[in-house]
Design goal:
two-stranded antiparallel sheet
Length: 484
């Protein structure tokens, strides 16, 4: 979530739909009929919330980022359909296989129906501490710590005071998260959060048959909760009963080893779940203190803006094709959003460096909650390391740059002096290292230093989609440079 008077209500980019026509010959001229085709990967169940929380309002302030003419045109032009192959919000765990062993496995059958993505067999998703014999305290920040009667949030319509406190089971042997049935603008919406968790658990951790009691349209836990809380019924006791039945059933599947067995077959999480977990972290750490990010010096390099979840998925998963054995570095990492996303979505070693004190404080809070919430979800993440200070003077960052496979520099508002300094830092990068930036280091100016960039970098130009950055709703430019 950004802070520049822009709503971050993201829409997943439309999916490419494969259409295959089956021609059936007339009876007088019989011919073999092709095998019926399975549904394409364009059908999916969309995640209710994609990335940084659209419910959270932002302080009114002008964006410090200079708008390009293309961005200005984008704000008034008719919205166009975004064409992208960004992974959809449903599990995507590998390619089809004709193996008879896999065909007998209902979980693998379900995975093969999802969109193809290269498999990183080295990525292990099961969290080693999440499925022990004893219930663990993950030490998360509970939703009820943020949105509750105690924080002066009104109780939802139809709920009695004794019905407000509820708990939610996650797919692990961790204590349940505490919620309260309250609602207030700019606060965590307990009902939406709970329904989203139920859907993600069923879609990612369970087979089709196992998921039916959770999300089947007729009589599932999710359907019962939706119906009970609708304006027509407002039956809070029924909602609470359905939630308790969900909790009990999921705990049963955790305790009998079903969830652990299924997650051991996964090599990455669907983007929708990645985004949801990161949004949960953000809602509980950054969102309550988001006004801290408005305190920066205009015209300096210390300006804050965020690249949103679908944009990062596009760059790290599709374009640079990162794997869990690689190293990612974010130079100017803000509150750590991208560092955490790389660690969760890719499973790689992920480093960030930020100079603004308030952003650093929020980044450390996010990292702590991120570790706890990944345990709550039962998923392992890559190593995370956040540095404070100027990345040009950080010994740790300078060392890790030599190992880096992908570097992100959100240099949209950087001065030419800082961009030139970055070019000098890139001299020691290993061959093939990818640098993602919002300004090109080669074509931005004609200084002598920039001639160095021409000699060491091959640059590709791309366009990002609407609502992929926090400071503008329009499309814009970004670049991927490869070290020669």
């Amino acid at each position: 979530m950004g802070i520049f008077n822009q709503k971050s209500k993201l829409k997943p980019a439309p999916q490419d739909i494969r259409i295959e026509k089956v021609v059936v010959q007339s009876k007088p001229r019989p011919s073999p009929t092709p095998n019926s085709l399975r549904a394409s990967s364009s059908q999916y169940s969309a995640s209710p919330r994609l990335s940084p929380n659209p419910r959270l309002s932002r302080p009114k302030s002008a964006s410090p980022y200079p708008s390009s003419s293309d961005e200005k045109r984008g704000t008034i032009a008719r919205k166009r359909k975004a064409v992208t192959s960004t992974p959809r919000d449903s599990p995507a765990f590998g390619n089809d296989s004709d193996s008879s062993d896999e065909d007998s496995d209902p979980f693998r059958k379900r995975l093969r129906r999802s969109e193809e993505r290269s498999i990183d067999l080295n990525r292990k998703l099961r969290h080693k501490k999440a499925f022990g014999s004893e219930i663990r305290d993950s030490r998360i920040i509970h939703a009820a710590d943020i949105a509750s009667v105690a924080t002066k949030c009104p109780i939802i319509q139809g709920a009695k005071p004794e019905e407000v406190a509820i708990e939610l089971q996650y797919p692990s042997r961790c204590k349940r998260e505490r919620y309260e049935l309250v609602w207030q603008k700019d606060k965590i919406d307990a009902v939406k959060d709970i329904l989203s968790v139920v859907e993600h658990v069923a879609e990612t951790y369970l087979t089709d048959d196992e998921a039916k009691p959770f999300i089947d349209h007729n009589g599932s836990f999710k359907r019962q909760m939706e119906r009970a809380i609708s304006e027509k019924y407002r039956d809070v006791p029924v909602f609470r009963t359905a939630l308790q039945n969900y909790n009990d059933k999921l705990l049963e599947l955790v305790e009998n080893g079903t969830v652990e067995k299924n997650i051991q077959k996964l090599h990455h999480l669907p983007p929708g779940l990645v985004s949801f977990i990161l949004t949960q972290v953000y809602d509980r750490t950054v969102a309550p203190k988001v006004e801290m990010l408005t305190k920066y010096e205009m015209g300096s390099d210390n300006v804050y803006g965020e690249l949103l979840h679908p944009f990062i998925t596009k760059m790290l998963v599709e374009q640079t094709k990162m794997t869990s054995d690689q190293v990612f570095i974010d130079l100017g990492s803000g509150v750590g959003n991208v560092v955490l996303q790389a660690a969760l979505e890719i499973g790689c070693r992920s480093y960030g460096c930020e100079i603004m004190e308030n952003a650093c404080n929020l980044a450390e809070a996010q990292e702590k909650e991120f570790r706890a919430r990944c345990l709550q979800w039962g998923v392992a993440h890559g190593r995370v390391h956040l540095e404070r200070g100027d990345f040009r003077a950080s010994t740790k960052i300078m060392e890790k740059l030599k190992e880096a496979d992908v570097i992100l520099v959100n240099n949209k508002a950087f001065t030419s002096t800082l961009n030139d300094a970055l070019i000098n830092m890139f001299l020691d990068l290993k061959k093939g290292c990818k640098i993602i930036s919002l300004k090109s280091f080669v074509h931005e100016n004609k200084t002598a230093v920039n001639d160095v960039a021409n000699s060491i970098l091959d640059v590709e130009h791309f366009r990002y989609h609407e609502n992929w950055v926090s400071w503008a709703a329009a499309e814009g430019d970004y670049y991927i440079s490869t070290k020669k």
